[in-house]
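Dear support,

Our group has been running a series of protein-ligand predictions, and this particular one with adenosine monophosphate is the one our PI (initials K.S.) wants archived with full inputs and outputs. We had some confusion internally about which version of the output was final, so please treat the block below as the authoritative record. The input we submitted was:
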Amino acid sequence: MNHRLCITLILLAIFGLSGCDRNEPVYNSRFLAFGTLTDVSIVGVPREKAVAAVEALEKDFTIMNHAWHAWNPGPLTRTNKLLAEGKRFALPPSVLALMRKSAILANKSDHLFNPAIGRLIRLWGFQQDNPDNWQPPDAAAVEELVQANPSMDDIVIEDIHAQCSNPWVQLDFGAIGKGYGIDLAIEHLREMGINNAIVNSGGDLRAIGARGGHPWRIAIRGATGAGILGFLYVSGDESVFTSGNYERNYLWKGKVYHHIIDPRTGHPARGTRSVTVIHDDATTADAAATALFVAGPRDWQRIARQMGIKYVLLVDENNIVHMNPAMARRVQLMDKNQSVEISAPLMQDDHNNNP
Ligand code: AMP
Ligand code: MG
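Confirmed final output from the archive:
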């Protein structure tokens, strides 16, 4: 391999892509969505078609960001107000599907993924843009909310109507909205005749098709958010999502507080630094990465099985990388001396899963 090709491959890898067919045109574009940079890579269509597709996706993401924003006034804040009032009401269409999916995934995760804990997230200061105002809440206020136990099970959805029996329920789709948004974006790309693409939002992505017949090469973020922990290949249709405590956090009196809350304690989840999940659809991958982060190094396998997740990598607070056998077969870690623990198989065919 010549020197220039080698550098090109390294650069492509860093941006989550790789492929050997340099004749296949790749259109890359970047815009802001859900408060993070979103990269769209499209292969195998004329440039004008790719440009139009990215413009369409950017509009989609703007609409979704408005619909699901937890604190800027819009369909979700209106929904939250009506849920708290306890009356039966017609759900905004933009919220309905995400609510249904959230309820199913919350149940499968034993409510460790619990988008009904919006009040807790607000209490910890994470429902605002200005990090200067982030500070830990009063312990009694946290305990009051844990006792109130807001859950997706408190909401009855009938056709397009909803009614909530627990006034403490407030929805926050921070752990699933990006995943669902990426699924809708991929659906839209396919409708436009694009079958080889990656939609990558801040390192969380769904890849479809391939590039010149080669799988996409994906970088797994390190547990600090900086650097690369390892690589894996995806082709066909797969999503790779990471939840990490580095994403949103603050230092208060020498202690770090991060944004993934354990609904059982009301406090930031402990024991985990990051979790990477591979799954077919991005919605499930997103919710599962958050749920497994909360489940932690001792309980992640049980929750992964319940949620039907086949590939998990969890970095614990001691920097040990835990993987199930099928994930271990797919990941190439950067540091060959990294401490690794391979778990028992998650599924019957865990040893045999081929990428
Ligand atoms: P993620 O980065 O996908 O793990 O999502 C984290 C975001 O989801 C946080 O910023 C909160 O808005 C929200 N969140 C925090 N803890 C939970 C939880 N246990 N279940 C559901 N959503 C949560
Ligand atoms: Mg998530």
